[in-house]
Amino acid sequence: MENIIKLEFVNKSCNENLARMAAAAFVMPLDPTCEEISEIKTAVSEAVTNAIIHGYEDSVGMIRMDGKIDGNTVEFTITDKGCGIPDISKAMEPLYTGKPELERSGLGFTIMESFMDKIEVKSTLGAGTSVKMKKVIKK
Amino acid sequence: MENIIKLEFVNKSCNENLARMAAAAFVMPLDPTCEEISEIKTAVSEAVTNAIIHGYEDSVGMIRMDGKIDGNTVEFTITDKGCGIPDISKAMEPLYTGKPELERSGLGFTIMESFMDKIEVKSTLGAGTSVKMKKVIKK
Amino acid sequence: MDLKLIGEKRTIIVNIKEDLDHHAATELRKAVDAKIKSSNAINVIFNFSKVDFMDSSGIGVIMGRYKITKILGGKVVIYGVKKQARRIIEMSGIDKLICICDTLDESLQKI
Amino acid sequence: MDLKLIGEKRTIIVNIKEDLDHHAATELRKAVDAKIKSSNAINVIFNFSKVDFMDSSGIGVIMGRYKITKILGGKVVIYGVKKQARRIIEMSGIDKLICICDTLDESLQKI
Ligand SMILES: Nc1ncnc2c1ncn2[C@@H]1O[C@H](COP(=O)(O)OP(=O)(O)O)[C@@H](O)[C@H]1O
Ligand SMILES: Nc1ncnc2c1ncn2[C@@H]1O[C@H](COP(=O)(O)OP(=O)(O)O)[C@@H](O)[C@H]1O
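Structure tokens for the assembled complex are given below, as produced in the milestone run.
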């Protein structure tokens, strides 16, 4: 089974739901369990929320979600062209948040890491961030 | 309320569901009725199915769905780069189908027209087809 | 989707369990036709009670089975149709050609 | 989401009716804080029984209300938590700080 999607949307918070739903619908042909669907929706929601609020802060910008299915592995890459992350390893520490004033919990990356099998973060200051996440859907 | 999405996917039939789900999730912030959601999902499904089976026939190609919300009007444009439609007004006649051997009913355009407020078809032979559909979500 | 053959009634009961779009229609058609070929069945009953979504591809499948069963001297009956699918069915006019019932029992009586 | 004030218990009951993501969290936070400001409430009970999805933004809202009610001398209690949300809550460790109940009655007793 091979498949790809590209989804682009404005950084409006109402599009968090859209991205989650699209991710869930995309993975359906692999016949995932409810738990696997939940995990994917949650991980995608975290990455998209980060792009919306951290990537672009108060400015308007586009976010892209690329989905790929290869065999029984699904991969999502969420990309923004926002501010970038100064220190990726610090950003990925559990409970670290750059926005405590927005009541962020600092758990986004922790959830992505524990719900997906592999996560890869690339970021350039002033140019943007991309988060690639993979998960094998068990047969 | 203003919003836009772009969704691109391969012409695999499993992506019909993906496009419908994305369309439904996209329109949610306008607080549509269940009936309006059904109508949009059905119209999108018809346009995407046409792009998959008529646009590309047996070849592989990408299909694009652009969504736009402007006030309480939602607009979807489904575009393929396939074979194009030789005679648009004939194609839009109820019960006309170019593929009776695939058990097509010829009702696709009829459903799009009756479930959406406005539909606009552009097509160039050998270059592709785009179907733009608008619907006002009642308040 | 699953198929059940009731040999003494020469009938296949098709429980559709997903959105009936072109993707599902292709699989459904293949499965039903293979079962008709390999059995004594001449009638098909479609259980629509789990179909929350159907588009015009569904009409194609029903009409296709209608034509085949008619040649064989049998019938197509559908039951448990929900609101969204009912609208598409009524738009297509196939409710004038085939029998639409509420329950499986009622459908079996129409065979 | 809807809010109900039980004046004699100095408690706001928040019925969350949608996915609790960052989008919903922003609205929820504003609504609850406005109600706390304009009433005598010092406790917040969140009804999670209709929440099929929550991400870490939900943890932020709960923790934020926990801090505010603590300053006021009150409590946050949540009840009716389903499986997906329970997993996020347990991952965050906030179940060690706030009370998680099964029903509204039980929640009111913890206030
Ligand atoms: N797309 C992004 N662009 C810029 N900064 C980001 C992005 N994603 C994450 N970050 C940074 O990493 C930090 C930690 O992210 P995360 O673990 O998801 O927690 P939270 O979103 O709760 O702050 C964020 O607070 C932010 O500073
Ligand atoms: N995207 C497209 N590319 C090429 N031809 C198309 C496209 N969409 C529709 N058509 C043509 O218009 C005809 C009528 O379409 P429609 O009303 O949806 O009925 P059906 O899909 O059942 O044939 C099709 O059979 C096909 O010949």
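The beta strands of chain C are 2-6, 11-15, 43-47, 76-79, 99-101. Chain C has a mean pLDDT of 97. Further analysis is deferred to the final report.
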